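Researcher: Sequence recovery benchmark, item below. Answer with residues only.
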């Protein structure tokens, strides 16, 4: 973005009377991710968010409560500040438009423009919506209702002060045409240009008489008026640089690199704010990016529908990092998205629990089992040189793909392609899983001659996790820290990444790992919202009267020929393919394994008596066949939702698998 080493990113300042919802969280999390990423890259970052605390709604709410408007704002402001703390937002400053320094700076800019005759007094007649605090023209209003909120409007005629915005129309059109990155994404840029090129830009009313609105910043040149929202709220981007740092920093950080806004306030920023800056002879921000809206289960969020998503609740139920991840992974940034708790649960299970979470668990388990819980030492030939290229191409491929990761992520973050960046990181975790499966370390561990190769595989998997933690940090800071801690590392993610930090080989042999609990507890999607899965069912829980579902290799009771069944009876059995996502041993059992399998449209937990034949790690990624329509049963207190097909008399000799690649959930005939 900016050629300077600084990076100044802002969110809109949110209206204090609002209850924080998913839209507020979305913008602020996106800004936080960019701020964290730029800090990792060594940029001097200033990240600003805050509150807009003036206006008619605040005045009316305070009057209804019988308290002073300032007291009202002081009571409400913490709901945003507490949410940002909960969501791990790393803003450098939090501005409130009721701050005394902000007020004086706004008045200074107003006086400057008034002295230049760029603010003048005039009369105005229009339809006013109190809820939106906005005037509408006759053509905008239908049936006496606000076109935005559909509430009744009232006709008002009054004298006000106006900013000569219209005289900057041609200059702004030219600026947008010659600065491709100024308004983004492209459809929003075209939208603003269309607006400016198809109608005459009028002057902007920037005041309200105190007789109608007293809760605002008094105009320095007329004590009977207060400034209206735009000349108060938008100036925060400049005023914060004057008083929120130890010394004034306008020259250091302005122009802003990025204003992140919702698409509903794009015109406010791209037109109103831009022309204000032109009038003040100040540079325009590098980029104004307008993101889309979130609907809920296909419907617009509204208090009347009762479907406003509370980010506090989502963070409490699903975890802060999974919530942050979902918002940026689910839809391309800039487009509208649909939120559902079922979708959030699926994303947690598929991307996080089955992805990076499973990779960490299985890697550290094998290091504990085969390397005494320390990062193994690896001979140079197994990772570098011509011999490695010939003998261990997968090791070399894993290393090279991670070396190229940083440059690719730079491009994606510069382009606001959060979902593609996260998909790339998830694919690298998946590649590491595949790499483990191909090398089969559980087999290497049985051959002393293959010990160096085993160490190379386990080292490579752990090193992959270390590097992924560095790049996951901006989106999931707490998760990155947990990965590092379980790898036995003490990484300070707040300092810039050095070249030797992200280079392959940074993980030191002999480091003691500290395997901990699962990074991402699984969640079960259900119509009433997902709930954490309890995988530690106890034997005291009652079991349904259903057949045991371990494997389909029971020991015959007698050598007599099995009874014949009719085809209709056999057709009642549903056999389906299932892909093994995770596997682990059942405590206190030599025989039982607990599997998590995918049937395409759903995931299931199955307990199978195949533990003497198979190591859990060897099953991950395999496509097996299960009986899919058995009633759930419990083995050692753990529910099993199906039966694995296996061959053998008494002892399991092999699983029934599929030779060709088929989708999970395919019927077996």
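Model:
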């Amino acid at each position: 973005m900016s050629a300077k080493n600084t990076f100044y990113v802002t969110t809109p300042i949110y209206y204090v009377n609002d209850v924080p919802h998913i839209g507020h969280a979305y913008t602020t999390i996106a800004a936080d991710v960019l701020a964290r990423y730029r800090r990792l890259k060594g940029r001097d970052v200033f990240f600003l968010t805050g509150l807009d605390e003036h206006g008619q709604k605040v005045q009316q709410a305070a009057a209804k409560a019988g308290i002073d408007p300032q007291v009202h704002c002081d009571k409400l402001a913490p709901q945003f500040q507490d949410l940002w703390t909960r969501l791990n937002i790393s803003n450098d400053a939090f501005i409130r438009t009721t701050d005394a320094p902000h007020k004086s700076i706004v008045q200074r800019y107003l006086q400057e423009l008034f002295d230049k005759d760029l603010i003048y007094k005039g009369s105005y007649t229009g339809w006013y919506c109190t809820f939106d605090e906005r005037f509408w023209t006759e053509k905008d209003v239908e049936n006496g209702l606000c076109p935005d909120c559909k509430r009744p409007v009232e006709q008002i005629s009054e004298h006000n002060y106006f900013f000569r915005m219209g005289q900057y129309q041609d200059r702004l059109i030219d600026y947008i045409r010659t600065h491709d990155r100024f308004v983004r994404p492209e459809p929003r840029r075209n939208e603003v240009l269309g607006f400016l090129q198809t109608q005459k830009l009028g002057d902007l009313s920037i005041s309200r008489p105190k007789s109608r609105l007293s809760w605002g910043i008094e105009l320095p040149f007329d004590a009977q008026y207060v400034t209206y929202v735009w000349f108060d709220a938008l100036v925060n981007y400049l005023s914060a640089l004057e008083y929120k740092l130890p010394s004034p920093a306008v020259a250091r950080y302005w122009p802003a690199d990025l204003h992140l806004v919702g698409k509903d306030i794009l015109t406010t920023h791209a037109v109103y704010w831009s022309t204000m800056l032109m009038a003040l002879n100040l540079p325009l921000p590098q980029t104004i990016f307008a993101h889309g809206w979130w609907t809920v289960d296909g419907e617009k969020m509204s208090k009347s529908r009762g479907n406003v998503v509370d980010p506090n609740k989502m963070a409490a139920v699903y975890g802060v990092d999974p919530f942050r991840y979902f918002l940026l992974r689910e839809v391309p940034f800039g487009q509208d998205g649909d939120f559902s708790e079922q979708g959030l649960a699926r994303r947690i299970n598929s991307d996080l629990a089955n992805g990076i979470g499973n990779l960490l668990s299985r890697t550290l388990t094998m290091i504990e089992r085969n390397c005494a819980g320390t990062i193994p030492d690896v001979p140079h030939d197994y990772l570098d040189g011509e011999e490695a290229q010939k003998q261990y191409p997968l090791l070399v491929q894993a290393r090279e793909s991670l070396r190229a990761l940083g440059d690719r992520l730079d491009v994606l973050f510069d382009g606001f392609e959060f979902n593609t960046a996260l998909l790339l990181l998830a694919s690298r975790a998946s590649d590491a899983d595949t790499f483990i499966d191909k090398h089969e370390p559980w087999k290497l561990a049985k051959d002393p001659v293959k010990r160096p190769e085993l160490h190379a595989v386990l080292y490579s998997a752990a090193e992959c996790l270390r590097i992924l933690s560095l790049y996951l940090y901006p989106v999931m800071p707490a998760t990155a820290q947990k990965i590092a801690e379980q790898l036995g590392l003490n990484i300070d993610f707040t300092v810039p990444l050095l070249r030797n930090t992200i280079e392959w080989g940074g993980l030191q042999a002999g480091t003691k790992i500290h395997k901990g609990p699962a990074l991402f507890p699984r969640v079960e999607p259900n119509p009433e919202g997902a709930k954490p899965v309890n995988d530690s069912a106890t034997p005291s829980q009652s079991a349904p009267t259903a057949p045991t579902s371990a494997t389909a290799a029971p020991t015959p009771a007698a050598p007599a020929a099995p009874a014949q069944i009719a085809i209709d009876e056999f057709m009642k059995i549903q056999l389906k393919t299932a892909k093994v996502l995770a596997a682990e041993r059942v405590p206190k059992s030599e025989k039982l394994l607990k599997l998590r399998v995918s049937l395409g449209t759903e995931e299931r937990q199955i307990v199978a008596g195949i533990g003497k034949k198979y190591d859990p790690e060897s099953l991950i990624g395999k496509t097996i066949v299960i009986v899919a329509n058995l009633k759930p049963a419990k083995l050692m207190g753990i529910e099993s939702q199906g039966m694995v097909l296996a061959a053998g008399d008494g002892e399991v000799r092999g699983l029934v698998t599929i030779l060709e690649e088929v989708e999970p959930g395919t019927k077996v005939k």
